[in-house]
């Protein structure tokens, strides 16, 4: 693939023109539009920009960070500038994670098309690279280390390169590797000599030892030897010869190895590094449809829309009582229609918080019906009064409306609920997923006295029947008590709780909350006092069976790592089935006091080594990382724990720990496991390097590579840690 990339760079007309460079306008806002010169670098992996054609250039973005390319018509910002800039000449670079989009306007439609086609091609090529092909890209290290760009690397340049690679190495040992690779004895490394030097540098002694322990001759693994490894160490008890052959064919680089049905050391390492077999089966900001796009493309299945009366009879969306800008309701609905099912076919919930007049509610109903069309669920599935909620499978590619609903017993007037949050999520099989975009402002307990005094002054809103009729399975109701809900409410109704109230109920009536969540949906949202858009740990609410646990999705950190990790399971479809004891309406489970029959387990994790860990703190330019690994368990309160290895001094390239950590878990069905790599600092707080979070139930035993993610959830490939995982039934003592 690397050779294919190099071939395209020299033959594809679009890529050749991109390497020459072109002027384009970089657009950040209506008032910020600057001319910049963009050029694709010769490696085909990065785009640089400069203020002038021959000016000093700096990196703009890496191709591996690009998620997709959109044309100008899909950019909300560029559409607002159509009087100044032609949409046909514009396009948007969309990045993975939380990085802002890059809007560019070329000098002509043809030049815009050149960049769009070229970037699409490069993204496809980079995305299709496997682990070994990505390692081939590290030949770029040669260019970085070759300071005088003469195509040769002296030992002095090698020493500089080692520092760039984040590794401190004994000078004599480094020189011995240099001499061994210098087969021409020229005193410099060229071409394949540097490749051999790099291979020696990246040699995995711990993997070699494992390979030789199963190989009779130390040179290869026969089919039977590889099958023994899969069954004994990887705990693949049902592995067949056919599957082992498939893995040899997939990961063995040599044709002779495939032909003879054996695995070489390179093929063995390629298998261990493969992602498919690693360890898995604000109150102030800018409202934008881009927030909805990002959430839906990340798998979010529930989208909140806070709607108010707008000018010219058109409802607008913004977060009330906050400093967010207005966007048209119909634009939000169109965005949901376009992106709802790009990531998952399973149903999306459109949660409406309506503050509109009767007339604009009618406009809302019309937009929902006309724009969503067949996607909108406007009647029960069988046309009769339901007796239970339909499954996500039955609602595939359907959009459901959540909100207030009129009944024969209700008056046409209702009191407005407190403002709800942005993009939210759920947890159970009935209706499930994650995440929110903005935060909310429900009064906390300390604000209740003022609320009671002002209750009579609350404004009344007349609910429009046309909008009410679109609420089928998700009628919003206020929560008073569990007893009241059981007596007066139905399975198709949903109550909302502030995080403070939900946590209090878990402590005071945890088992009642669990039983409540077996027949009615619950939604929990962040406190309005979180003015910094911080998050709470969703695990505590999942432990009680709460289906929708809303998050400030724009805020990276431990809490979002847990949320993202939880919803990686089940194919990332946005729906996760709760454990049996959270679906049984007679359940005795109490999240604060878990007792049998829940089956306890012991987890042993041997943290073996790390590979090519990045140095993310740019303020410590002269230092090399001192990495340590922290393993955290999140679940019921008694299971929450953390342990860490010692730090390895001055080696982020191939650190070795060889330490075993032991965890005892009472309720493994609710546990989440988080691997975190930190840069030890004795003067201040340790610096974050990377993490990976996954549910206990998704862990595979045996030797696995944990491929690290950044704070924003972006792959840090090839950075990884190599571990051995063993799960035993019951609570055992410490083991070495």
TrEMBL record:
Domain EF-hand: 133-168, 169-204
Membrane topology label: Peripheral membrane protein
InterPro entries documented for this protein: C2_dom, C2_domain_sf, EF-hand-dom_pair, EF_Hand_1_Ca_BS, EF_hand_dom, PH-like_dom_sf, PH_domain, PI-PLC_fam
GO molecular function annotations of the record: calcium ion binding; phosphatidylinositol phospholipase C activity; phosphatidylinositol-4,5-bisphosphate phospholipase C activity
Domain PH: 16-124
Pfam families: C2, EF-hand_5, EF-hand_like, PH, PI-PLC-X, PI-PLC-Y
GO biological process: intracellular signal transduction; lipid catabolic process
GO annotations of cellular component type: endoplasmic reticulum; nucleus; plasma membrane
Compositional bias annotation for Acidic residues: 413-423
C2 domain span: 583-710
PROSITE patterns found in the cross-reference section: C2, EF_HAND_1, EF_HAND_2, PH_DOMAIN, PIPLC_X_DOMAIN, PIPLC_Y_DOMAIN
Annotated ranges, domain PI-PLC Y-box: 467-583
First-listed, main subcellular location of the protein, grouped into a coarse class: cytoplasm
Cofactor: Ca(2+)
Chain spans, region Disordered: 413-454
Reaction(s) catalysed by this chain's protein: a 1,2-diacyl-sn-glycero-3-phospho-(1D-myo-inositol-4,5-bisphosphate) + H2O = 1D-myo-inositol 1,4,5-trisphosphate + a 1,2-diacyl-sn-glycerol + H(+); a 1,2-diacyl-sn-glycero-3-phospho-(1D-myo-inositol) + H2O = 1D-myo-inositol 1-phosphate + a 1,2-diacyl-sn-glycerol + H(+)
Keywords for this protein: Calcium, Cytoplasm, Endoplasmic reticulum, Hydrolase, Lipid degradation, Lipid metabolism, Membrane, Metal-binding, Nucleus, Repeat, Transducer
Entry's EC annotation: 3.1.4.11
Class of enzymatic activity (EC top level): hydrolase
UniProt subcellular location: Cytoplasm; Endoplasmic reticulum; Membrane; Nucleus
Described purpose of this protein according to its UniProt entry: Hydrolyzes the phosphatidylinositol 4,5-bisphosphate (PIP2) to generate 2 second messenger molecules diacylglycerol (DAG) and inositol 1,4,5-trisphosphate (IP3). DAG mediates the activation of protein kinase C (PKC), while IP3 releases Ca(2+) from intracellular stores. Required for acrosome reaction in sperm during fertilization, probably by acting as an important enzyme for intracellular Ca(2+) mobilization in the zona pellucida-induced acrosome reaction. May play a role in cell growth. Modulates the liver regeneration in cooperation with nuclear PKC.
PANTHER family: 1-PHOSPHATIDYLINOSITOL 4,5-BISPHOSPHATE PHOSPHODIESTERASE DELTA-4, PHOSPHOINOSITIDE-SPECIFIC PHOSPHOLIPASE C FAMILY PROTEIN
UniProt-recorded name of the protein: Phosphoinositide phospholipase C
Gene designation per UniProt: PLCD4
């Amino acid at each position: 693939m690397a050779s294919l990339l190099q071939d395209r760079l020299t033959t594809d007309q679009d890529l050749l023109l991109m390497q020459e460079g072109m002027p384009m306008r970089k657009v950040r806002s209506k008032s910020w539009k600057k001319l910049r010169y963009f050029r694709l670098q010769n490696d085909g992996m990065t785009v640089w920009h400069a203020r002038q054609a021959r000016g000093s250039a700096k990196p703009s973005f890496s191709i591996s960070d690009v998620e997709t390319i959109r044309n100008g018509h899909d950019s909300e910002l560029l559409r607002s500038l159509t009087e100044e800039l032609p949409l046909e000449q514009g396009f948007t670079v969309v990045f993975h994670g939380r990085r802002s989009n890059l809007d560019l306007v070329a000098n002509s439609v043809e030049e815009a098309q050149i960049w769009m086609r070229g970037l699409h091609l490069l993204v496809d090529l980079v995305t299709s690279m496997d682990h070994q092909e990505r390692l081939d890209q590290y030949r770029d290290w040669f260019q970085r280390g070759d300071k005088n760009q003469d195509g040769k690397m002296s030992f002095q340049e090698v020493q500089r390169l080692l520092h760039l690679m984040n590794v401190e190495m004994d000078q004599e040992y480094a020189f011995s590797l240099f001499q061994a690779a210098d087969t021409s004895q020229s005193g410099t490394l060229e071409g394949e000599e540097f490749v051999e030097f790099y291979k020696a540098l990246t040699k995995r002694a711990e993997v070699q030892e494992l390979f030789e322990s199963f190989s009779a001759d130390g040179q290869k693994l026969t089919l039977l030897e590889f099958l023994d490894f899969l069954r004994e160490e990887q705990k693949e008890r049902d592995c067949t010869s056919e599957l082992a052959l498939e893995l040899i064919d997939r990961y063995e680089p040599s044709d002779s190895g495939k032909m003879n049905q054996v695995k070489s050391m390179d093929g063995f390492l390629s298998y261990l590094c493969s992602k498919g077999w690693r360890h898995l089966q604000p109150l102030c900001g800018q409202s934008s449809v881009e927030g909805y796009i990002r959430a839906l493309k990340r798998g979010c299945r529930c989208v909140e829309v806070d709607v108010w009366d707008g000018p010219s009879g058109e409802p607008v969306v913004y977060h009330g009582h906050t400093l967010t800008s207005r966007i048209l309701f119909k634009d939000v609905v169109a965005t949901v229609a376009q992106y709802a099912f790009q990531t998952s076919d399973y149903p999306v919930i459109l949660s409406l918080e309506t503050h509109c007049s009767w007339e604009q509610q009618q406009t809302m109903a019309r937009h929902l019906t006309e724009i969503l069309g067949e996607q909108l669920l406007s009647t029960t599935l069988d046309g009769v009064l339901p007796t239970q909620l339909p499954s996500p499978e039955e609602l595939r590619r359907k959009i459901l409306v959540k909100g207030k609903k009129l009944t024969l017993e209700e008056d046409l007037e209702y009191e407005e609920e407190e403002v709800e949050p942005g993009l939210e999520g759920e947890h159970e099989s009935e209706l499930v997923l994650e995440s929110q975009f903005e935060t909310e402002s429900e009064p906390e307990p300390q604000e209740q006295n003022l609320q009671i005094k002002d209750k009579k002054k609350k404004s009344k809103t007349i609910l429009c029947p046309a909008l009410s009729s679109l609420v089928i399975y998700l009628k919003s109701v206020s929560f008073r008590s569990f007893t009241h809900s059981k007596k007066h409410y139905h399975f198709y109704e949903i109550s909302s709780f502030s995080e403070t109230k939900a946590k209090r109920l878990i402590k005071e009536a945890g088992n009642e909350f669990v039983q409540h969540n077996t027949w009615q949906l619950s939604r929990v949202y962040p406190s309005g006092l979180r003015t910094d858009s911080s998050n709470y740990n969703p695990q505590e609410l999942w432990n009680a069976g709460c289906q929708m646990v809303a998050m400030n999705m724009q805020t990276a950190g431990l809490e979002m790592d847990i949320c993202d990790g939880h919803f990686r399971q089940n194919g990332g479809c946005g729906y996760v089935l709760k454990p049996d004891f959270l679906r049984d309406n007679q359940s005795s489970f109490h999240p604060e006091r878990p007792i049998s029959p829940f089956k306890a387990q012991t987890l042993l994790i041997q943290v073996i080594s790390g590979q090519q860990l990045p140095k993310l703190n740019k303020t410590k330019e002269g230092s090399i990382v001192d990495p340590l690994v922290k393993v955290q368990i999140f679940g019921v309160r008694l299971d929450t724990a953390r342990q860490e290895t010692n730090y390895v001094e001055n080696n982020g390239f191939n650190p070795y720990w060889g330490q075993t950590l032991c965890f005892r878990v009472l309720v493994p069905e609710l546990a989440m496991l988080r691997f975190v790599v930190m840069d030890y600092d004795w003067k201040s707080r340790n610096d974050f390097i990377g993490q990976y979070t996954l549910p206990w139930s998704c862990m595979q035993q045996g030797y696995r590579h944990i491929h690290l993610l950044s704070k924003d959830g972006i792959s840090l490939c090839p950075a990884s840690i190599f571990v051995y995982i063993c799960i035993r039934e019951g609570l055992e003592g410490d083991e070495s």
